[in-house]
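Q: What would this chain look like folded?
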Amino acid sequence: MRRWLLVGAVLLLAAAGALAYGLTRLDRYLADQRDALQAQASALLGRAVTFDALDVTLRGGVGASLTNLAIADDPRFGSGPFLTAAHAAVRLELLPALRGEYRIRRIVVDQPTVNLIRDADGWNALSIALLHRAADGAPTAAPGAPAAERVDTRLPAIGAVVVAAMTIDDGQVHIVDRTRQPPVELAVTQLRLRGHELALGAPIQFELAAAVLGASAPNLTVTGMLEPGEPPRADVHAEWQPLPLNALTPLLTAWVGPPAASLALGGTAGGTLRIAGAVDRTTLPAIDGSVTLGDVSLASAALPARIGQLSGVLRVTPQGVALENATAALGGAPLRLACQAAPPADPLVHCRLEAAEITAAQLGVDGRPGDALRARQADAELRPRDAAPVLRATARVAEGQIHGAPF
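A: My prediction, written as structure tokens:
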């Protein structure tokens, strides 16, 4: 029995040694073929692809890893990189591969940076050749190569490829919208993304965390499912910690234009939302959740008085948005505020404002000393129209003084 155990141990050691030798030879082969592999990857994406080293390993399954990966941007958008990553690794399950099934155990990408740019012709990411390949996966030319120099980029049974898990760690996404002047820029940092059971045409389960609006730590989490189809469907839950609203001012100025140039926002807004249902241009998904407003302030040259100290909870449902029992200050005068907004299909906004007293100075209008409205209640109804919005308002005042005359 000991003899058979000894023979088995010797065979295992011999196999391990042969495998190690084979991997060493494979590493050397891949190093020698790096230029050819970069050319094939470049042809597949229609972008120049470079990396420093390509290694193979058996740790955690048969796999390969890249260091200092870089994918060039479409020249129409600039000469910088579209994507860079310090390290990327793929682990393949061996037994399914022997049956012709490509099941990837894990994909890991460390410290990637993605630059997303939009101009009048669209997004730079959408010009990647892989997204426009012919159904038969015909060979394409590598970027910069002569037309006659073809590189075979046919993919193996991509519909059968399943990725059990994908991880992106410490990523950054820089978004630039050049359709606005000046261009709108937004940075997402400390991005951490997890995907599960990824397959072509199948629902995608994911978890995401990131820092937005200049936060020093992750303040946004998004989890859920995206399902391809016509139309695509989503079931996503988002939660964000209180965000500083003053960071939105440059974005609003760029998107809205001159009317928002004098806008000053303050305070915070945090909350949770769930988005579920079909997502396309004609159908809006159902949205449920709440947004907590903390000491929000709004000032603009278009407003006669500053709105401040707004605190309350916005309730969001498929039937509309409601702000109930909120408190605020108008020109420093304390007041209570409630608003309701109907869905976009039949838009209607109704607000009620109640205040014990508001002086002429607090309203931002000229008046005499003592001019004020007491026990004041105002209702306003706004219904957007294609031509112009329709506004109806009523006000009830118990007593007060206007231009020195009491009533």
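The radius of gyration is 30 Å.
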